[in-house]
Amino acid sequence: MKEIIIEGLSKKIKGTLILDNVNMQMEPGKVYGLRGKNGCGKTMIMRALCGLLIPDSGKVIIDGEVLHRDIKFPRSVGVLIENPSFLPQYTGYENLRMLSKLMGNISDEEVRNAIERVGLDPDDGRTYRKYSLGMKQKLGIANAIMGEPDLIILDEPINALDEQTVMSIKTELLKLRDEGKLIVIACHDREELEFLCDIIYEIKNGTVAGCEVIGE
Ligand SMILES: Nc1ncnc2c1ncn2[C@@H]1O[C@H](COP(=O)(O)OP(=O)(O)OP(=O)(O)O)[C@@H](O)[C@H]1O
Question: ipTM value of the model?
Fold first, then answer.
């Protein structure tokens, strides 16, 4: 992937303008942060990015291909938005393995690798039902990064995690960035975002109110 352009994206739901002329540009090898108050539209922008929200006007262009015109979804994308629906009676590994089979080209080794990268044990025999909140969150991240997609979209990924886990997840995300992935992350915590991101978009009332380049 070479670039993503979000151009004049607007969306009304039940008469309310949720996205209002959103414009952004993103390139691989960088982490982009979305920051803003509850309800400002971060999740909606992420949904639009991965093809889950059809805009009323404007478009998302990924390497020249327009979402919903040329392609339905980005060609290589991993997503964590809200609670993923894993099956409670299966282990974390079994859940991801089933999903990897649906997606096609992800090997069992890559599934194990993703689980290890977030600090879980692929051989853990506990079913998802028995997972703690943090473990569930980690499995959601593992699901988003397995197979190392070009585009990784994470909505509040470190919310439920303890300090040590947050640190190791951040390290993994920065590794993925350095491998050339494009990562988009929404987070309330300003410090966490500043640590992780190369560029932070400030979202206000469904539109981009500012753009900060970190480290400059
Ligand atoms: N299904 C829906 N129908 C109508 N309005 C919705 C729907 N889903 C979200 N909204 C509205 O869209 C706006 C943007 O929501 P969004 O979830 O993108 O916010 P957010 O920035 O991700 O917030 P948070 O930080 O709380 O996750 C909010 O005003 C919300 O009330």
Answer: 0.94
